[in-house]
Design goal:
Blueprint: H1 2-27, E1 37-43, H2 44-53, H3 60-64, E2 69-76, E3 83-85, E4 92-94, E5 99-104, E6 110-113, E7 119-121, E8 124-126, E9 132-133, H4 148-151, E10 154-156, E11 162-165, E12 169-172, E13 179-180, E14 188-190, E15 192-194, H5 200-237
Antiparallel strand pairs: 1-2, 3-15, 4-14, 5-6, 5-9, 5-10, 6-12, 7-8, 10-13, 11-12
Helix pairs in contact: 1-5
Length: about 240
């Protein structure tokens, strides 16, 4: 019975994690350029097998509990969001799924984003949170330049080489795998924004499913606890 409780408790934790991720996706359903986060669930047995293949020490408890479900993978939905024309000359979208704008955060570090809803601050092109949009030469872009759009730097890298910073920016895992494009021609669309790729209906269904699985595991634990209590009472009465 105890092993069953451990498995059900692990399942509840997984569903809580799913609820957190799905809720964040729903909150960003209207965020420009947002990429949906997802979780994959697997058995702890995979991790146990990996440790054994690496000749790492495995304790008896791990072998006994190897069927406990665990979050297997966190990944980003790379699909392109729909494009919406805005008529705003400071709005930009990227046509290449693996292309990103370069921005400089408040600490002077380079980050990458798909959010092209820019604005002007002190004569320079910046993101909505005030980060400077960088050109191909990693310099801030002067909005007074009539050809400022051509100066916007664009890089190309796989999502596997990126980690999310906050909700809508990324940092590179390996800088050498980030390729700066010589020109943004054919990649950049002005007066256009890429919408979030979150499917609200599908995401709502996923949220309901996670909540129901959590409740099912909770009820099962309550049932096991009731059975254990009856067994203990029965043993006590037979003494």
């Amino acid at each position: 019975m105890t092993q069953g409780i451990h498995q059900l408790t692990a399942s509840m934790i997984n569903q809580l994690n799913r609820v957190d991720v799905i809720s964040n996706n729903l909150a960003n359903a209207n965020t420009v350029g947002f990429k949906e986060d997802n979780l994959a669930e697997g058995s702890f047995n995979r991790y146990l097998k990996t440790k054994m293949q690496k000749d790492e020490v495995t304790i008896k408890e791990s072998i006994v509990m190897d069927t406990i479900p665990k979050i297997d993978t966190h990944y980003i939905n790379e699909s392109h969001g729909s494009l919406r024309e805005t008529g705003n000359s400071l709005d930009f979208a990227l046509q290449d799924e693996n292309a990103f704008f370069k921005v400089e955060n408040g600490q002077g570090d380079t980050e990458y984003t798909r959010d092209g809803s820019f604005r002007v601050q002190d004569g320079q092109l910046v993101t909505q949170n005030g980060y400077a949009v960088l050109g191909a030469n990693n310099q801030a872009i002067n909005i007074n330049n009539p050809d400022f759009a051509q100066s916007i730097g664009v890089v190309n890298t796989d999502f596997e080489n990126l980690e999310k910073v906050g909700n809508n920016n990324f940092k590179a895992i390996k800088d050498q795998d980030v390729i700066a494009l010589v020109s943004n021609d054919g990649v950049l669309l002005q007066n256009t924004l890429e919408q979030s790729n979150v499917n609200t209906i599908k995401t709502m269904v996923g949220l309901i499913e996670a909540q129901r699985k959590f409740e099912q595991s909770q009820k099962a634990i309550t049932g096991i606890d009731t059975i254990n209590s009856k067994v203990i009472d029965s043993i006590g009465n037979n003494r």
